[in-house]
Amino acid sequence: MVTKGLQTKQNIIVKSLDLFSVKGYYNTSVNDILEATSLTKGGLYGHFQSKEDIWYAVYEEAVTIWKNIVFKDVRNIEDPLERIKKVLDNDLRNYLGAHIFSGGCFFLNMLVELTGQSSTMSNCILNGFIDFSKLINQWLKEAHEKNMLKPGIKFNEVASFIVISVNGCAALYSSIRDPGIWKLTLSQLNFYISELKQ
Questions:
Q1: CATH number assigned to the domain with residue range 71-195, chosen from the 4 options 1.10.357.10, 1.10.10.10, 3.40.50.1000, 3.40.50.800
Q2: Which residues contact 91 (CB under 8 A, 6 or more apart)?
Q3: Sign of the CA dihedral with 178 first, then 180, 186, and 192 last
Q4: pLDDT, tens digit, 9 for 90 and up, residues 107-149
Q5: What secondary structure, in 3-state letters, does 67-131 show?
Q6: Do residues 109 and 58 lie in contact, with contact meaning Cβ atoms separated by under 8 Å?
Q7: Residue 138 CB contacts under 8 Å (≥ 6 apart), including other chains
Q8: Per-domain residue ranges for the chain?
Q9: What distances in angstroms separate CA 29 from CA 35, 51, 90, one per listed residue?
Q10: 66-117 tens-digit pLDDT
Q11: Distance between CA atoms of 101 and 21, rounded to whole angstroms?
């Protein structure tokens, strides 16, 4: 059973996620959060010590939402290259293209805003991108072990290129919301992955 306190905390996280996504972290004031949640300062600070604490909870919520979308129907795919393609399809079509967060890709937006402002917060996001790259790297190694890849492929470089491409797509798509951007990116990444095959 969810307590009223947990409901209030979750409401703060959800409303703050929307505010940070649209306005940015620094342009969102504590008063904005109070107004969105209909709480007093005492009510807010009963759950979080600071706006930065709220941000970390918001980040974890955003990660959970992203993972639930991006890794849907992936676990049972035995072919590691098809697994990568499915993750990319979920990410570009069902996360980015579906406008899950009002302001676009929450992680990219936050990384751009926070870099040079808060190294701990920006590193939190950057580490998420690195972990995503490591997972793709791991799946490429699995494909290599199954003799599916051409010889000489540098897994780390390929994985990094894929993550960079996804983030470049997110940046462009957020600015003009033209679905052709993510569709073209997905098509070309699928072609690129297919070209890695033996």
A1: 1.10.357.10
A2: 69, 70, 166
A3: negative
A4: 999 999 999 999 999 999 999 999 999 999 999 999 999 999 9
A5: HHHHCCCCCCCCCHHHHHHHHHHHHHHHHHCCCCCCCCCHHHHHHHHHCCCCHHHHHHHHHHHHH
A6: no
A7: none
A8: 4-52, 71-195
A9: 10, 8, 33
A10: 999 999 999 999 999 999 999 999 999 999 999 999 888 999 999 999 999 9
A11: 6
Q: How far is the first Cα of the chain from the last one, in angstroms, to the nearest whole number? A: 53
Burial of 63 (0-12, 13-18, 19+ CB in 10 A): middle
Handedness of CA 169, 171, 172, 177 (dihedral sign): positive
Q: Does the pTM of the predicted model rise above 0.70?
A: yes
Residues near 60 by beta carbon (within 8 Å), at least 6 away in sequence: none
CATH 1.10.10.60 matches 4-52: yes
